[in-house]
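From the shared-data thread, chain only:
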Amino acid sequence: MKAASPRRKPEAATTRSATELAKNCTADRAGALLAWYDRHRRVLPWRALPAEAADPYRVWLSEIMLQQTGVKTVAPYFEKFIGRWPDVAALAQASLEDVLRMWAGLGYYSRARNLHACAVAVWRDHGGIFPDDEATLRSLPGIGPYTAAAIAAIAFNHRTMPVDGNIERVTSRLFAVEESLPQAKPLIQKLATTLLPEAKSSSARAGDSAQALMDLGATICTPARPACALCPLDEDCAARLRGDQETFPRKAPKKSGELRRGAAFIVTRGEELLVRDRPAKGLLGGMVEVPGSTWQAGQDDAKALSQAPMLRRASSWHRRLGVVTHVFTHFPLEVVVYSTKVPARTAAPKGMRWTPLASLGDEALPNVMRKIIAHGLGT
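Structure, as tokens:
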């Protein structure tokens, strides 16, 4: 009897084409992935149940919220939004201020502004119906290539593969992609697309394939200590066979932004706090803040204090011990906090207003401001 030939190990993805790397197993990988998903799919508030049609509005809303934010953080916000605005028409007719208030604490506030603008555009230009092609989806505010592909695949079953962080990790390990991110993104995109079922056989499950890879990365192929023995693609995984799966995806050294410093001013008038609205554009655009200095590298305390609001009959500024630290995407921040009190009926400076301390939960305060206020009030 002829001896069986040994199984060839998958090769690392370097300069070979995606087609060459995946030529032997597109169908069986896609089938194994879907079979695993049918048994182990996550139950998520925005995800359609098996055999249930996906709602494009819920898919879009969840994808915007999930950008750079985890599922556990997003879930309660998603439920609040759906409870308040159950469809795109309701969201389009809401005020941006209300949307920002509801979004407060979720971070990356340009997403909230784009979310509202997109809802208005869908309602105004598309009759309240999300377009089903990627090109038109990409023309809408806040929808880039990934989000357009996710909506097209999950909501409309188009044969396209959205590549999020989970899919990126699974694919880079499966093919042992040696090129570092972000340069490796185009290759990973091509390789991930090979994991879709063939169009002639199972085109209606393109969305399930994408969600299966997302779930696999979230629950099995995790960044640290992946549970490879439970993975439906374990036998074909090049990185697992080499034993270096936790080193993928390869990443170029991350550059951290220069530390910026500033001051914040907590002014109370009895049970009221002095606040102002940030400009509509830029960092934390349209959100609410307490008065403060600019945030600059190398700024000293004297320069920051010189930018305090001008208030009549204010007591002297009291500097709170310690600093408030916060990390934005492109830079870390340190804020010193000063506090003072003013008499009743003191007028708010131009561009500012008084808000009851008891109503701060209704203000569109970003997380950094919530930390500053808590520090300044000693709560």
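Residues 10 and 236 are 6 Å apart (CA to CA).
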